[in-house]
Each structure stands twice: as structure tokens, then as C-alpha cells.
Design a protein that fits this description.
The protein has two domains: 128 residues, Rossmann fold, CATH 3.40.50; 164 residues, 2-Layer Sandwich (Alpha-Beta Plaits), CATH 3.30.70.270. It contains ten helices and twelve strands. It is 46% helix and 20% strand. The chain is of the alpha/beta class.
Length: 319
């Protein structure tokens, strides 16, 4: 038994049970409408989640070596896995056991033998709730136009990056970017055309950095790039950040070809030059706050603008 390969759009379930007959029953209930993976031990379940996060877990309580409660505790302690909905499926019908499962993070509790209609309804309900919560999270922490992280999520990731830098002694860098010639485009052709440029700028920024880096929209025509895990040597980290900043500067300076849509007129295109001024602040285990690091990069970005725009400047602390 394994994943239903007919559609990758199906919700994915992980069924965890040490009894083959229980796995078989749940597999038959869901295999036509869900991607189903199985595990027969707690260790296998944790490994399966580490390899690919399921949308929901159906988890037996009574298993040898590692019971379902311990599996749940470990999943909830893992930052990457803690939000996976877990439904306990068990032969025990004890209110205290059910309460314990809910207290340690499960979303529901189903007793065996399972009723197909009931387990299907509960699984679908919790999948819908998870989808709704994901949408709320996306709206709260991502920019509506570009889909990039917003200020709130950037602040959280910067805090995490600074804490990691303090532990590892590796440097990180924050780049504050402001588009130099954006307002004239908005004034001449309207916000819809300006939005096209912002979307293209976001795409270019993402193409310039690693998957582990963060590109955020700070607001208006301002973007922030967060680089983590740079070299422990400060001079080498400056070189690394300079290289990426120059790649970004060059990419953003290339001509933008945008669609013009005006009522009553045929569609046309407009070309626009829009460079960026970039301020860079490095951090390496400082006791400074994330607000201060953003302030350093922002201040340095204005120095780049004053130097003639389309420039890169690095923050230098006062001696």
C-alpha cells in the first residue's frame, strides 16, 4: 500500500498503526479520495513526516516501543511538524485517555472499530479547518500583491536568524531595498501597471537568492532580503553579501516591459527603467534587536540614494 498516484492534488494522510487489519480498513476508506501513506511504528511515523509532511495523521495510541502519545509529543515539539492535525484512533474508550490525547495536541479522538462515514466526516472536517487556518495565516503574514512575507513574518524570521547567528557565530545580512524610479510609473500609467512592476521585481529578487533566504515586501516600493548562514569570518561575509547585493542591483536595473491596459484603447506595452538603492547591515551574534538591524539597513539605504541611487552601501557602526 502507498500513495495513490492518480492525483497529486489529493489531501495526504499518514495512517499509523501496528495492526495490519486496522491499516487495511483505513486505507480502503480513504485510498480513492486521499493520498495514503502508512507506518507501523512510531519511529516510522516520525521518519515519514520528516521526509514529507502529511496533511493529517491518523494515529493509533497503543503501539510497541513508542506509543501514540509519545509520537504526538515529538511531533508537537518539532517546529516544522507541530501544525499537522493528529486524530487518535484507538480501541480504548476511556475519557481520561481521550482528554490526555487532546491536551498533548491531538485535534480529535475516534474509537475502534471505526465507522467509515464517521471517520471520513471527521477527517474532512479537520482538513477543511486546517486549510482555513492556513489561509488566515497566509493573509496575516504575507503581502497580498506579491505573496512575499510581510513585515510581521520578516521580523519573526530575522529574530530566528539572529538567534541562530548567536549560536553558530555565522554572520547574517539584512538588505533594505527601495526602487528608485517607481513613482513616475504609477503617476503616468496607474497603479495596475505599477503592480506589474512590483510583481516582476519580486520575481527577480527571488531568482537572485537561495531558497533558505527570505525576500519580503516591506511596504510600497520597499523590499527586504534576509541572508542567513554566511561565513563566520566577517570580511568573507561582507564579500558574500556584496556579491548577492550586486546580483540584485544588476537584475533590478534591467528594463521592465509592462502591459498597458486602458479602457477603449488596444493593449500596448511600455518600457520602464527602475533601479534600486540598497542598504546592507550585517549581524553576528550581537545583542541588538531586530528593529535595530532593520533601522541600520534602512539608514544605509538612504545613504545609497543620496550617493546617486542605483548604489549599494554597507552599514558601519560608529567606532
Amino acid at each position: 500500500m502507498g500513495r495513490n498516484s492518480a492525483s497529486h492534488d489529493m489531501p495526504s494522510l499518514l495512517v499509523v498503526d501496528d495492526q495490519a487489519i486496522n491499516i487495511q480498513m483505513l486505507y480502503q476508506i480513504f485510498s480513492g479520495t486521499h493520498q495514503v501513506r502508512v507506518a507501523t511504528t512510531g519511529a516510522q511515523a516520525l521518519l515519514a513526516c520528516a521526509e514529507k509532511l502529511p496533511d493529517l495523521i491518523l494515529l493509533d495510541v497503543m503501539m510497541p516501543d513508542m506509543d501514540g502519545h509519545e509520537v504526538c509529543r515529538r511531533l508537537k515539539a518539532d517546529e516544522r511538524m507541530k501544525n499537522i492535525p493528529i486524530i487518535f484512533v484507538t480501541a480504548q474508550n476511556d475519557p481520561h485517555d481521550e482528554a490526555l490525547g487532546l491536551e498533548i495536541g491531538a485535534v480529535d479522538f475516534i474509537t475502534k472499530p471505526v465507522n467509515a462515514a464517521v471517520v471520513r466526516a471527521r477527517v474532512n472536517t479537520h482538513l477543511q479547518l486546517r486549510q482555513a487556518l492556513d489561509q488566515v495565516w497566509k493573509l496575516a503574514f504575507h503581502d497580498a500583491l506579491t505573496g512575499l512575507p510581510n513585515r510581521r513574518l520578516l521580523g519573526d524570521r530575522l529574530t530566528q536568524a539572529m538567534a541562530a547567528s548567536k549560536r553558530s557565530r555565522q554572520c547574517g545580512a539584512l538588505m533594505f531595498l527601495d526602487l528608485d524610479n517607481f513613482k513616475p510609473l504609477n503617476d503616468a500609467h496607474g497603479h495596475e501597471t505599477g503592480d506589474q512592476l512590483l510583481l516582476e521585481a519580486a520575481s527577480r529578487l527571488l531568482s537572485c537568492v537561495r531558497k533558505t533566504d527570505t525576500v519580503a515586501r516591506f511596504g510600497g516600493d520597499e523590499f527586504v532580503v534576509l541572508l542567513s548562514g554566511l561565513n563566520a569570518d566577517l570580511n568573507e561575509s561582507i564579500r558574500q553579501a556584496q556579491e548577492i547585493a550586486e546580483k540584485i542591483r544588476t537584475s533590478l536595473a534591467a528594463t521592465y516591459r509592462l502591459n498597458l491596459k486602458q479602457m477603449g484603447e488596444p493593449a500596448s506595452k511600455v518600457e520602464h527603467q527602475c533601479t534600486a538603492s540598497i542598504g546592507v547591515a550585517l549581524f553576528q551574534g550581537q545583542n541588538s534587536s531586530n528593529v535595530e538591524v532593520i533601522k541600520w539597513a534602512d539608514m544605509t539605504m538612504y545613504q545609497a540614494k543620496e550617493a546617486g541611487r542605483n548604489q549599494i552601501r554597507f552599514f558601519e557602526a560608529e567606532k
